[in-house]
Write the structure tokens for this entry.
Amino acid sequence: MSDARTAEFLEFVQAGGQVETDDWLPDEYRKRLIKFIEMHGNSELMGVLPERDWILRAPTLQRKLALTAKIQDEVGHCQLIYRVVEDLGKPRAQCLDDLISGKSKFHNVFHYPTKSWGDVGVIAWLVDAAAIISQKALLKCSYAPYARVMKKVCWEESFHILHGRDTVLAMVTGTPEQFELVQEAVTRWWEPLMHFHGTPIAAEEDPMVHWRIKSQGNEDARQQFLDGYVPQIRELGLELPDPKLRRNDEGVWEYTEPDWEKLTAVVTGHGPASQERLAFRRLSRAEVDWVSKAMLPEAA
Ligand SMILES: [Fe+2]
Ligand SMILES: [Fe+2]
């Protein structure tokens, strides 16, 4: 009976066991894995678009090289992650089709426009910092192939954070105008950053934690982010746009409750740059269509 098999599977993964591609996987587990990992792959791919806009505008050759290297890493992450989805039964081409048609989602932070070089520093430092917290927790994912890919991803993400921090440091120690560019970017990015780890659903009620796809609840991740980065941001003399933000006597960060309906609207394609980014990705897909037709006999 498959229920007994599922119960046995659950017991195994909840005790810390990891499974491989050719192991028996319950349907629900496979579906949740595909949706979650696909969204991660989509986010790596869509995440390069806001940064790509700044390659030509980077202030020095060194900055241009660092930014280009980061972008190449992110596209590499997407390739690796889509391969994991492919092994679970959903082809890469289908992932791309669902992304550009709006059927699948990508992370909230990549639905926003960039306005200045300050954004490049803030994205690489703080968006990547928020991401690495989730990705480090995925090293313990019950699906071993995904956990293995995360090792390389996390290693590269830590380089991105250093690049972002260095960019921010150069600006906050530069002219008052440069400082202001970072301050303005931090203020603008704070809401998307507070949305990043999702609603504060209790870990015990989170189906992703239940299947041990994730090993950390949303609020735990957000607290870890606040604990690690608010002191660093404030140390640079930067201000955060939330008057309620403080670490209480129990060591828990208190903050103004983010507008969760806004998060839902953003990730369902109603963010300020959602449609523009998807339109660009559609265009790229159409432009390279002839390559897959020429290379893959079955697509011809
Ligand atoms: Fe990445
Ligand atoms: Fe990154």
About this structure: Strands lie at 246-247, 253-254. The chain has one domain: 21-299. The longest strand covers residues 246-247. The pocket of fe (ii) ion (ligand 1) is lined by residues 44, 74, 77, 153, 157 (CB under 6 Å).
